[in-house]
TrEMBL record:
It comes from Xenophilus arseniciresistens. It comes from the Bacteria. Keywords: Membrane, Transmembrane, Transmembrane helix. This is Cytochrome oxidase small assembly protein. The chain crosses the membrane at residues 12-33. NCBIfam families: cyt_ox_assem_30 (NF038351).
């Protein structure tokens, strides 16, 4: 695996992780709002 491929893989992983984090935060916010 070339350094270029590693760089692209790391960037893709960060992108997917940030999307998952956003979904999780959105879910938590919705639980708090609907919990009231």
């Amino acid at each position: 695996m070339t350094p270029e491929q590693k760089r692209k893989n790391r960037r893709m992983a960060l992108t997917l992780a940030s999307i998952a984090l956003l979904f999780f935060i959105g879910f938590m916010v919705r639980m708090v709002v609907l919990g009231r």
